[in-house]
Amino acid sequence: MTPLIAGLDHVQIEAPAGCEAAARAFFGRVLGLPERRKPAALQSAGGVWFGLPDGRQLHVGVAADFVPRVKGHPALRCVNLRDVQTHLQACGVPFQPDDRAGMPRVFLCDPFGNRLEIVQHGHGHDLG
User: Fold this and answer.
1) In 3D, which of 101, 102, 105 has the Cα closest to residue 119?
2) For the residues 5-33, what does the mean pLDDT come to?
3) Cα distance between residue 117 and residue 73, in whole Å
4) Is residue 54 assigned to a domain?
């Protein structure tokens, strides 16, 4: 049977109104993600979209009743977690190392208090 779901296109995290400059500084300059142009029909809603190297996207969307997500989170993949940690330290971004999932990773917060994870290599493709 052909799977109904073919993959993951994007993840959206929420942020408060007026978040765009802080989102660009953190996701664009600190994490190095290129900004993607939002469709014209969605630009008035605010927020910023960013691209990931594999073609997927991370969207920062404005929520009128914004509350930071402290449990649910996107997990970003990296090749060398030590390099990421060194970079985060140089940028003054606090993080918490963790290896309980059997792989090196760190948890941190975006400028809005949302939890993020950065994992080295990530989970395999085996669902079994």
Assistant:
1) 105
2) 97
3) 7
4) yes
